[in-house]
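Hi there,

I know you've been waiting on this one. I reran it after we fixed the sequence typo, so this is the corrected version. Both the input and the resulting structure follow.
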Amino acid sequence: TGASGLKELVIGSNAERLIRRATMPVLVLKNPPAYLSVKNVVFAADFQDYYDNSIERLQTLLDGFDYPTVHLLFVNTP
């Protein structure tokens, strides 16, 4: 259960806070169904060398699904 209304506008939701403070990749599901069907995944990163381990973990996670499409998003940060 996340924040709503003015509180969410000012400080964000609990999921946003968790993602901002995470030291590792995070998967957030809102109201997950009994059976999870993953069709598309977005991996957003600046693709520095330290992401190699994260990509390997993503591959391991996706092995449990029926060949989802993985979209790579390059995040250009100063």
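Quick highlight: The CA atoms of residues 15 and 28 lie 7 Å apart.

Best,
R. S.
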